[in-house]
UniProtKB/TrEMBL annotation:
Protein known as: acetate--CoA ligase
A GO molecular-function annotation: ATP binding
Gene Ontology biological process terms in this record: acetyl-CoA biosynthetic process
AMP-dependent synthetase/ligase domain location: 53-420
The entry's keywords: Acetylation, ATP-binding, Ligase, Nucleotide-binding
Membrane spanning stretches: none
EC number(s) from the headed UniProt entry: 6.2.1.1
NCBIfam families: PRK04319.1
Domain AMP-binding enzyme C-terminal, chain residue ranges per copy: 473-551
Taxonomic lineage: Bacteria, Bacillati, Bacillota, Bacilli, Bacillales
SUPFAM superfamilies assigned: Acetyl-CoA synthetase-like
Length: 574
């Protein structure tokens, strides 16, 4: 198999504290990382305590935990202030609901400091928090709250209409973060209550295996599934943030991911805060100029983003980069989709920095296969298994395959941040495992040096702009459109977004296949599900390829689209 040995990018002196790394990584066991936490001596577990209060009660008291900036706000919060604000949030939640340990609390709002207070406050109260990306529309919000029987949600006045409270009998309270919110039996004015609340709060102590975060994510079949993480994930998040993100005391760290996705919680909140680092949070939409300006203004040193973002920056041209001082950047990382070698090359050219690819999933809860500062990078490879993680390529029966064979990318189960259940769906959870192996759904191969090379998804899951979309969810929504009788959805390769969503639809009698109808269908999905789930391309077909049992054959659609052989068609109807 063609590895790109000749293009290896060596370790750069000064990039990484190799001696430190080798000391901790040698014979490393996850238990070694436990000692740092307060619970190791007190026996009292709570991830928000370890991320916030532990530092607020130390020499880091007046160190900035969060810088926040968007078009209207520019704020900074020290660890001490974070402790007070998260205590206030916990008090507001507790005083205005029956929320208690283990209850599900959703957070559905764009990035703002309040999102972080609420999320960490909810954790201090012992609830399991479910962050929702702000683009979700009513149907998507309903599915997630209904499945998890959420007791409360925190949202904004702009998003309130998308919370179908009347259809969610278990939903007791809606906390609204806005100005002069009109309170009712159900609605609580979050900001007003925050002002009145005490900044003292008795953190609710938990067990290491109690739930912390519930992230809904998509597979190729069925509704989105609730991936539950536990408190103990903190062990891996602390240690990998140190090794992989290379966080040090003086760093200014910027993770561009929204907390609605796992990167935005595991490495947008926990990884940095468990290490007592300083993070930048940038609100608002992506704009090239704003991003470069933020790096310059805050002196960002460690930057964690995604291939689509890098490709968009690339597309904006290199001339722009010269207008900003980006010289503080020390360590740059990427996640979520294949990182093309061209992008790595661009990073070297324009930032004079290596871009370190990292591979993991919502289900893994933390870094699994990565390029870290102390290793040579092979552009196009995701890197090697991090210490404490055993990764392999296995066949469909769980046999480990030799180097350079393509197969299922699998991980030996039992790492700290691994999901502990799929909410309400034991069967689905079990389906991930073959014996001791967690099977990721990605195909890959490993070379002789232990570097993993991503080849594709085994299933039909779509990764568009780094966001994971299940074709089934989009197809179900399409079928609700009055004109559509059949729908099949695939990921179509795209030079900027990795993949875009393409829908093939067949129409009911009497509907004309027009451009207006395409636009109407696109808007229908956008409004009913989410903007990022709306098909960018729609193609009308008289009929879609189906199995005899009526299942749409996405693989045939994909083959048509890509001009590839369609393979075995023996199960296809007529
Ligand atoms: O297909 C892989 C892709 O993203 C999937 C996981 O998506 P999600 O759960 O949303 O988590 C994304 C961020 C942690 C994987 O099964 N993926 C993730 N990282 C990479 C990747 N594909 C290629 N290269 C990566 N570095």
């Amino acid at each position: 198999m063609a590895t790109m040995e000749k293009n290896i990018i060596p370790v750069r002196e000064g990039d990484f504290n190799l001696a430190d790394y080798e000391k901790t990584a040698k014979d490393f066991k996850w238990e070694d990382a436990e000692r740092e936490f307060d619970w190791y001596t007190t026996g009292k577990v709570n991830i928000a305590h370890e991320a916030v209060d532990r530092h607020a009660d130390s020499y880091r008291k007046n160190k900035v935990a969060l810088y926040y900036r968007d078009a209207n706000r520019s704020e900074a919060y020290t660890y001490d202030q974070m402790k007070r604000m998260t205590n206030k949030a916990a008090n507001v939640l507790k005083a205005n609901s029956t929320l208690e340990k283990g209850d599900r609390l959703f957070i559905f709002m764009p990035r703002s400091p309040e999102l972080y207070f609420a999320l960490l406050g909810g954790l201090k109260l012992g609830t399991i928090v479910g962050p929702l990306f702000e683009a979700f529309m009513e149907g998507a919000v309903y599915d997630r709250l209904d499945d998890s029987e959420a007791k409360a949600i925190i949202t904004t006045p702009e998003l309130l209409d998308r919370v179908p409270a009347d259809r969610l009998p278990k939903l007791e309270k809606i906390f609204v973060v806005g100005e002069n919110v009109e309170e009712t039996d159900k609605i609580v004015d979050f900001n007003k209550r925050m002002k009145e609340a005490s900044h003292h709060f008795e953190t609710v102590w938990l067990d290491k295996e109690d739930g912390s975060v519930l992230h809904y994510t998509s597979g190729s079949t069925g509704r989105p599934k609730g991936v539950m993480h536990v408190q103990y994930a903190m062990v891996q998040q602390l240690q990998t943030a140190r090794w992989v993100l290379d966080l040090k005391e003086e760093d200014i760290y910027w993770c561009t991911a929204d907390p609605g996705w796992v990167t935005g919680t595991a490495y947008g909140i926990f990884g940095p805060m468990l290490n007592g680092a300083t993070s930048l949070i940038l609100g608002g939409r992506f704009r090239t100029e704003d991003w470069y300006q933020a790096i310059e203004d805050y002196g960002v040193t460690v930057w964690y983003s995604a291939p689509t973002a890098f490709r968009m920056l690339m597309g904006a041209g290199n001339a722009l980069i010269n207008e900003y001082d980006l010289s503080t950047l020390r360590h740059v990382l990427s996640v979520g989709e294949p990182l093309n070698p061209e992008v790595v090359k661009w990073g070297l050219e324009v930032f004079d920095r290596r871009i370190h690819d990292t591979w993991w999933m919502t289900e893994t809860g933390g870094h699994m296969i990565c390029n870290y500062g102390s290793m040579p990078i092979k552009p196009g490879s995701m890197g090697k298994a991090v210490p404490g993680i055993e990764a392999a390529i296995v066949d469909d029966r769980g046999n480990v395959l030799p180097p350079n064979s393509m197969g299922n990318l699998a991980l030996r189960k039992g790492w700290p941040a691994m999901m502990r259940k799929i909410w309400n769906n034991l069967e689905k959870y079990d389906s991930y495992f073959i014996g001791d192996w967690y099977v990721s759904g990605d195909s890959a191969y490993m070379d002789e040096d232990g570097y993993f090379w991503f080849q594709g998804r085994v299933d039909d899951v779509i990764m568009t702009s780094g966001e994971r979309v299940g074709p089934f969810e989009v197809e179900s929504k399409l079928l609700e459109h009055p004109a559509i009788v059949e729908a099949g959805v695939i990921g179509k390769p795209d030079p900027v977004r990795g993949e875009i969503i393409k829908a093939f639809v067949a129409l009911h009698e009497g509907y004309e296949p027009t451009d207006e109808l395409k636009e109407d269908i696109r808007q229908f999905v956008k409004k009913g599900l989410a903007a990022h789930a709306a098909p960018r391309e729609i193609e009308f077909k008289d009929k879609l390829p189906k199995t005899r049992s009526g299942k749409i054959m996405r693989r045939v659609l994909k083959a048509w689209e890509l001009d590839l052989p369609t393979g075995d068609l023996s199960t296809m109807e007529d």
